[in-house]
Amino acid sequence: MRDDEQKAQGRACGAGLWLGALSGGLAGFAALATAELVSPAVRPQAGPIVAVGGAAIDRTPAAVKDWAIRNFGTNDKLVLQIGILAVLAIFALLLGMVTLRFRRVGALGVLLFGFVGALAATTRPDSSSTLDALPSLLGAAVGAAALYVLTGRLVRRRQVAGPQSVAEPTEGWDRRGFVIAASAAATASVGAGALGRFLHGSSGRDAVASRERIVLPAPGSPAAPVPSGAHLRIAGTSPFLTSNGSFYRVDTALVVPKVDATAWRLRIHGQGVTRPVTLTFDDLLRRDLVERNITLTCVSNEVGGPYVGNARWIGVRLADLLAECGVTPPSKGGPADQLVARSVDGMTLGSPVEDVMDGRDALLALGMNGEPLPFDHGFPVRMVVPGLYGFVSACKWIKDIELTTFDAYDPYWVKRGWARRAPIKTQSRIDTPRPFARPKTGTVMVAGVAWAQHRGIDKVEVRVDDGPWQQARLAAEDSPDTWRQWSFPWQASKGGHTLTVRATDRTGAIQTQERTKTVPDGASGWHSVVVTVQ
């Protein structure tokens, strides 16, 4: 009989552990749902998942960030958030099991995680108030209470020697009470989470409305018509202009900022700024606007990678604004050699003042491909500087420009091992045929794009296997600041072949064969694809 009792007790204990894990999961769900509900009242970025995710991004080594972008592309943020949720789920399940024996310890564990979320939220670069801690703390309080109540339905108190007692899972747990409490917790959490999602969507309503009301005026300096031969229209190649929906997005924002253009302000100040100014969006709209086709490239773009795109931008010349503020470049005696741009999400990027003011079309862009900037790409205003990688120039959601020196301040990416200065390297890419394609014998059109912004592409060459370099046909050039398409008719013979491309820029420099990683100042090397001709 004793054996039967021990087996029954063991089964009860096992069932209790599973129910404890369920309690932990429900408590974790309640905590996150409450935080989701509260965060729109503070600001969307104050939610624990976003805050902890942002803190994780900030502390991730550059090589790991680069690996994530390379392997997950623009889904890297989604993967990070799923990873955080998975860790929280495992912790909640284990905490629920522990709470069966130590109820107060379990509740304190939930509160501890709430403190971590609160700390992450209040120490983010874009945090300006201790209220950012509220979503995490309130969520943790609700989660701790839910865990305490749920596990209380699963245990009885067993008296031990002395005045103390311990909790243990037992066959006598309150089934009805647990089912009611668990159902109530799950229902309330689903409702809170759904309402929180709705409020998150509503929180950017003013920003969306402000964007819809914007009518971009005709530019005083319109872009020249794209030459008819700039787009080769070969199947498989990138279009000359990249659509807004297809344009790459690489940044650290887990929640895309939605800024109301009517409330947006830009401050220009710092060393050598004799006339500091604060500008509104309407101030920029009233200025003479410039329209240009400019190709942007991300420093995380591997050789042959997709993080490059060409768009038609409309905006204000940054050099003109700086000159009106009294700024002079270092070559003319100016004290500042670095322009630090700050985003509403706390990102900082540093650009050489000399490059911004050397005559190139460096813009504060208001529009992209004929419409106001999309939110993903920096609405209401972003920087665009031809010839510089994005991490040292393309500040999205910009709110502040400070003139300083490279010796005095290290922006976000420089602190994490990337270069202070990063002109875009001469690169070329084979778009077609794709790697491991199986074309037929005969004429196969090899085609792609090449870029060397602010210098221009002078020549593109293709090599088949270890044969000689052969010159490709270049499409018409729009400007030195845009990529250039190329094509090469290859007389393909049966078997496996390696196709390699290289470019020469307008200075006469040939794209280097030396293969380097993206860190610290951009990848280099020749792009190759392997095909099998049938």
Protein described:
The structure is a single chain. By secondary structure, this protein is of the alpha+beta class. It has helices spanning 2-42, 48-59, 62-72, 76-99, 103-122, 134-152, 175-203, 205-213, 281-285, 318-324, 353-356; strands spanning 155-159, 165-169, 265-270, 277-280, 290-297, 308-317, 338-343, 348-352, 363-368, 371-372, 382-384, 398-404, 427-432, 442-451, 457-464, 470-471, 473-474, 484-492, 495-505, 527-533. It is built from eleven helices and 20 strands. Helices cover 34% and strands 23% of the residues. The strands form five sheets. It has a five-stranded mixed sheet. Strands 5, 6, 9, 10 and 11 form a five-stranded antiparallel sheet that branches.
Fold topology:
Layout: H1 2-42, H2 48-59, H3 62-72, H4 76-99, H5 103-122, H6 134-152, E1 155-159, E2 165-169, H7 175-203, H8 205-213, E3 265-270, E4 277-280, H9 281-285, E5 290-297, E6 308-317, H10 318-324, E7 338-343, E8 348-352, H11 353-356, E9 363-368, E10 371-372, E11 382-384, E12 398-404, E13 427-432, E14 442-451, E15 457-464, E16 470-471, E17 473-474, E18 484-492, E19 495-505, E20 527-533
Parallel strand pairs: 3-12
Antiparallel strand pairs: 1-2, 3-4, 5-6, 6-9, 7-8, 7-12, 9-10, 9-11, 13-14, 14-18, 15-16, 15-19, 17-18, 19-20
Helix pairs in contact: 1-4, 1-6, 1-7, 2-4, 2-5, 4-5, 5-6, 6-7
